[in-house]
Amino acid sequence: MAYENITTAQEERIHIITINRPKQLNALNKATIKELHEAMDAANKDASTRAIILTGTGEKAFVAGADIKEFSGYNVEQGQELAANGQEILFNFVHNLPTPVIAAVNGFALGGGLELAMASHMRVASDNAKLGLPEVSLGVIPGYGGTQRLTQLVGRGKAMELITTAGMIGAEEAQQWGLVNHVVAQDELMNLARKIASKICANSGSAIKSAIKAVNANFVDGLNGYNVEITEFGNCFGTEEFKEGTSAFLEKRKPDFK
Ligand code: CAA
Predict the structure, then answer these.
(1) What is the model's pTM?
(2) DSSP code at position 89
(3) Sheet holding 168-170, edge to edge
(4) What is the pLDDT of residues 170-179, one digit of tens each?
C-alpha cells in the first residue's frame, strides 16, 4: 500500500513503520494518523509479522506533536472530535494491538509524539531524545491520552510537574522515571529495537496476545485483571503453540512457532 506520510518495511517477522514528515518534525496531522492506523492494522493482520517498530524519519524528531497548524482554527466541537477520533483510531488502537509495538524514540517526542510512544507497548530512546507534553504552553491540554498514560507510567506527581510546567526531560531522566526502558546512542537505536523485536519473534505469538490483554486489563476500570489473567492463561492451553512450546521443552529442543 502506498502512503504519503509514512514508510513501511518488512524485515523477516519485524515490521518497521517510520513517520515521514521531516519538514514538520514528523508532526501528526489527521492524514498521518489515518495512515498509521491503516499500517498498524495491516501489520497486525499479517500472520508473518510478530513485532512492530515505530520510529520517525531523521535524527531530530520522533514526533513533535499533533500538527498545530492543522488544529489552530478549531472550535470546541472540532477539538473534541479531533481528540476522540485520534484516541479511537490510533492511540487506543495501538495500546490494545495484539502485536507488540516498540517505539524507537529518536529525538523530540512532544505532545502527541510522546502520547504515541506511551500508547506503544514499550519505548527505547536515543540519548538526544527530549520528551514532554508542552500542550499547556499552547493553551490546550494533551488530547491523545497523555494525561492518563503519563500518570500510569510515572505517577501523579511527576506527570503533574511535566504537564503543568510544559517541560521537557532528556532521555536519561526519562529512563530514571521509567518512561523509557533503554537509552543508547542514536546510531544504535534501531539495532536495539530490532534486538528486542527478535526476542519477541522467537516466542509464542498467541501467548503474547494473551499477555498483552492481561497486562492491559490492569488499566481498565471495572475489569478484574486477575480474572482476565485466569481466562487468558486457560485459553493458552487450547493453542497449537502451547503444545509446541511444552513439547519442545520436554524433548529438549527449541520451539518452532509458525
Ligand atoms: N505541528 C506543526 N508543525 C510543527 C510542529 C507541530 N507540532 N512542531 C514543529 N513543527 C514545524 C515548525 O513549524 C517548523 O516549520 P517551518 O520551518 O515551516 O516553520 C519545523 O517543524 C521545524 O520546527 P522549528 O523551527 O520550531 O525547530 P526548532 O529546532 O527550533 O524547535 C521544537 C523544535 C522544540 C520541537 C519546536 O518545533 C516545537 O516546540 N514544536 C512544537 C511542540 C509542541 O508544542 N507539541 C505539542 C503539539 S499539541 C498536541 O500534541 C496536542 C495533542 O495532544 C492532541
Answers:
(1) 0.98
(2) I
(3) 61-63, 108-110, 130-132, 168-170
(4) 999 999 999 9
Query: Which pLDDT does position 258 carry in this prediction?
Result: 83
Average pLDDT over residues 47-73: 97
Task: Give yes or no for residue 65 CB within 6 A of ligand 1.
Answer: yes
Q: Known catalytic residue: 35?
A: no
Domain coordinates in residue numbering, the chain: 6-201, 205-250
Label residue 158 exposed, middle or buried (CB < 10 Å: 0-12, 13-18, 19+): middle
Output the residue whose Cα is nearest ligand 1's atom 54: 143
For 111, residues 6+ apart whose C-beta sits below 8 A from its C-beta are: 64, 65, 66, 132, 133, 134, 135, 142, 144, 146
CATH of domain 6-201: 3.90.226.10
Per the listing, cell 518495511 goes with 9
Q: How many Å apart are CA 148 and CA 61, to the nearest integer?
A: 23
Give the position, in ligand 1's atom list, of the atom nearest the Cα of 146. Answer: 53
Q: For position 32, what pLDDT does the model report?
A: 98
Q: How far is CA 134 from CA 69, 128, 168, in A?
A: 16, 18, 8
Q: Is the pLDDT of residue 137 over 80?
A: yes
SS3 of 170, please?
strand
Per-residue pLDDT tens over the stretch 206-230? 999 999 999 999 999 999 999 999 9
Distance CA 61, CA 81 (A): 26
